[in-house]
Each structure stands twice: as structure tokens, then as C-alpha cells.
Design goal:
two-stranded antiparallel sheet; mainly alpha; two-stranded antiparallel ribbon
């Protein structure tokens, strides 16, 4: 029985995808060939084992599916008690939401309370913020702290997370 961390699962899936692309490239190069009508086709025909190559490709794709299913199972079933009893998938989604919130709040902090706005009319217009910039800055600071806390926890947790694999 082999124990793999979820990080190792991801690396293995990446390696398998590269192998899959290599096999597909090999198949594309070997499945057809060119020759003039005066050349001996049998001398030019590349060695191509269709069934063997497809079998090898099927095996790689099956391993990718199995590892992906195990990773998804881990991400969707294991609870992370440090973060309100979320699953790892919930935690990933929370990270995404925090990042989007950080970007939105940061954009709000870049506005001035009163900003000159150029328009096509002859009138001089101003754009006014309709919120308290200091409150947004405080929310941004808190969001960044939470984001850093969740990222750090997630990195350490994912690195240690593992499952047992029978060979």
C-alpha cells in the first residue's frame, strides 16, 4: 500500500497528462505517412502498433480518471474543522471568494471622494463616492488577513493530506 499526499496526486496527474500528450503525438506521427507513387510503401511505412498504442493510451487515461476521482473525493468529503467544518472544496471556493472580494475592495479604495469626470457635454461633471473609503480600507485589511490565513492553512493542509493507495 502506497500513501500519497494530495499534492503528490496532483503531480502524478500532471505527469500522466504529459505522457498522454506524448502518446497522442506519437500516434499522430505514426498513423499516416507520405510517399510518392513511385516509392516502395513497405520500406517507408513506419512501425505502428495501433492496438498497442491505444491500449497504452487507455491505461494512462484510466489512471488519470482514478486519481482525479480520488482527489475529488478527498476534496469533497474531508472536513476542515479549523474553518467552520468546511470541506476542502468549500475551502477552495472560499479562497476564490476572498480573492474576488479583495480585488473588488481594492478597486473601491482607488477612487477619490470627488473625482473630475470628463463627459461629451460642455458641463464639468464630478464622480462622487457613495461610501466611506476608510471603512472599505478596513474591510480590505481584514479580507487580506483572512485570505492570508486561509492560504497558509490550505497550503500546509494540502501538503500533508494523503490517502492510501493499493498497488
Amino acid at each position: 500500500m502506497t500513501i500519497m499526499t494530495i499534492n503528490e496526486i496532483g503531480k502524478r496527474i500532471g505527469d500522466l497528462k504529459k505522457e498522454r500528450e506524448r502518446l497522442i503525438g506519437k500516434d499522430k506521427k505514426l498513423r499516416v505517412f507520405r510517399a510518392s507513387e513511385f516509392e516502395d510503401l513497405e520500406k517507408l511505412r513506419p512501425d505502428y502498433d495501433y492496438e498497442g498504442l491505444q491500449s497504452e493510451l487507455d491505461g494512462v487515461e484510466e489512471e488519470i480518471r482514478n486519481l482525479t476521482a480520488k482527489a475529488i473525493s478527498i476534496l469533497t468529503t474531508q472536513k476542515v474543522n479549523e474553518f467552520h467544518d468546511m470541506t476542502l472544496l468549500d475551502l477552495l471556493l472560499y479562497l476564490r471568494d476572498l480573492k474576488e472580494k479583495e480585488e473588488r475592495l481594492y478597486e473601491m479604495t482607488t477612487h477619490l471622494e470627488k473625482e473630475r469626470h470628463f463627459s461629451s457635454s460642455l458641463l464639468l461633471e464630478y464622480e462622487y463616492t457613495n461610501y466611506d473609503i476608510s471603512k472599505v480600507e478596513e474591510d480590505l485589511r481584514k479580507t487580506r488577513e483572512e485570505l492570508e490565513k486561509v492560504r497558509t492553512f490550505f497550503d500546509f493542509y494540502i501538503y500533508e493530506l494523503s490517502y492510501e493507495q493499493t498497488e
